[in-house]
Write a structure and sequence with these properties.
Strand content: 5-15%
Order of helices and strands: EEEHHE
Radius of gyration: 14 Å
Keywords: Kinase, Transferase
GO molecular function: kinase activity
Structural class: alpha+beta
Number of helices: 2
Oligomer: single chain
Number of domains: 1
InterPro entries: HATPase_C_sf
Shape: elongated
Protein name: Signal transduction histidine kinase
Strand order of the largest sheet: 1-2
Helix content: 40-55%
Number of strands: 4
Amino acid sequence: MTMQGPGVVLLDTMSVTVTPARSATSVADVRDSTRTLLEGLVHPIPAETADTVILVVSQLLTNALRHGGGTCTL
């Protein structure tokens, strides 16, 4: 966490632990969830940055499902 002044704290990191179902829509569902999370931020990020975050999350989940198993933390 980073203190930005009296009563204002910004998070430097955030993690989410998920156990995605291995289905044809797993990655698409996580992309949608990530987009919803980003759209709900108090301080929105630019659309291009959001698209990059969604792409990275999508690739990480794809690799986790393909090469790992079980729970993954992003």
